[in-house]
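New to this. Comment on this protein:
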Amino acid sequence: MSTAREDLLAAGLAVFDRDGFEGATVAEIRSRARASNGSFFHFFTSKKQLAGTLFLEILQTYHAAIITAVNDTHGAGEGVARLIRAHLDWVVTFRREARFLFEISRSEWSEEVRGAQRTENSRLTDGIERWRAPLLARGELLPMSATLFFSQIIGPAQIFCRAYLSGRHHGDPREQVETLIACAIRAVVAPGAPERAGGTS
């Protein structure tokens, strides 16, 4: 059974998705959550704080899906493919959450949220690096920074995802997955790298 706080966050997501951040009102969020004014302000000081809290919770969910896609049994090419599939699957499965995360969120939210976001981003980097570092050390992945690596993997896929989330393109972005994987492998995987970690075929 959901809690009042969870109901408010779910209502906020629905209202932000429909009306955007600027168009959303506390009154509409309360109405959808069937929550009193006092209940709303017990959990959140403002619409912006609710949105920031929602952003961080969705970001954690997204990062968990990405981090758990790879482990030390996955070789360079296989890992790249799994990361791209995880990203596309999450966006399509959680379209409303993805739209909020990638299309609706605002940079002007409080420094507290931005600090927590940096912490979450560091956790994502650490999670991927646990898989990437041994492959990098063995020369199976091309040398580049963690930021550049992630941009090569997720950046092109994200172009399709943003078009899908904004409604500019109605096709499932997963239709492009094989081409996206092939391009990413050419960009980051060393020629001749074994299919699986440790050099096993």
